Amino acid sequence: MKKLALTLVLMAAFVVGATTANAATIKATGQWQVDAAWTNDQNMRSDDKNDDFAVLQRMRTAFQFIANENLKGVLETQIGTNNWGNGLYSVGAGRSPNTTAGVTASSLGSGQGNLLLRKGYLDFKWPGTKVNFLVGYQSLALPSAFGAGSAILDDHVAGAAAIVPVMDNLSLVGGYVRPVDLNQYGSTATNNGNGTYADASFLYANVDFTGIQLKPFFAYAYAGKQTTGADSLTGLKAPNSATGDGTRGYWGGAALTVTALDPFKIMADVNYGKATSNNGNLTGSNRSGWLADLAVDYTGLSMMTPEVFFAYTSGENGNGNKSERMPTLSAENFAYGTFWMQGGDSLKNSYSDPSTNMGFWAAGLSLKDIKLIDKLSHTFSVIYFKGTNSADILTNGLNNGSVAYGRTLTTKDSLWEVDLNSKYQIYEELSLGLELGYINADFDKTVWANALGGVKSSDLSKDAYKATFMLNYSF
To answer: Please, what are the domains in the chain?
Structure first.
């Protein structure tokens, strides 16, 4: 009996020792945010059906499972964004979900699918090297110096990337992503077989010298014939591509940041992209365009950082032969300003759509990080946007779903945007923010009313307002 007891003790000690040797250190981080948002005519229409007031909530929580300095797994979840009183935040939604048909949208059914996978990937270095691999569902982006993110690719996507140090001042970053796979492997659905997926690959260099950082890049994408109509590829496909046509896309460009001219900081981007339908004989089946921006900050003041910037994206010339707007894959962060292009931190404007906005030029002035009172900061911006798309885009067949009133500007449309964003740091981890925004819109009412059909021109070209209080806990 004693031998048996001793054996069990030794086995338990062995198991505990083995478990300890393989245990991972867990580190949790996150951002939990609650907004109270007031908006008026945000779609620049007086018949806007959106609620003027809403309380929204979102909780992002990330876990790092760290085996050692060379290996970890990352898991990030998200709950929301939803309005209070809607879906998972409706009364009774915390009860067990009911799967009975007809109640999936009710409070009892809202427990289904509330926990979203935002990231889930492996992060490791190859043994004996400094080469870093990221494999799984993650955030991947092409280089961008200004504009809050890349307009081509800056999103959560399944893929693999490698960061390869070459020398002290040079590293290479390359990757492969699969944004869409509609193959349902012989199920009763019709999407299976060839042409059901879209793939993309990219490569860029990080050239970093004292005071100068340059990131040239190249990217390629291919969308199979059955993915042409996928909502997530609206910005890639050529406007007149038929459903059965695949699409190929190419991009090249560079992001430049210069701090060597202190107290001035210069940021600039140049992007070019081309998408070609596999059916090259179809009129209007190709698209190509470009984007360029330049921003200059003056960092010599302690109480604020003034900034001026200019941006230009090519627009449609209206001849109907092809699209002149730059193709995009998916980019959730790209924006100039924090209102019209859905930028900023507020949950109601939390996802930009560059494929719809393309075709404009913008000039702006910002006073960033204004600090007059301890723990309180402000950013004030004035931006003028003018369309570069011919108004013929609404009638010549190049409207493929990436054109929308209030989001797309023609040469006859313009707007002024004024933003005042403030943040008070209650604690180191807890902040209270206030985003105020105003848009003075000047759209061609007649052209858009005819294009929309059944809309009164008097309901269009309305100014828009927003005021959003944001409580953010970052840990």
So the answer is: 25-474 (2.40.160.10)
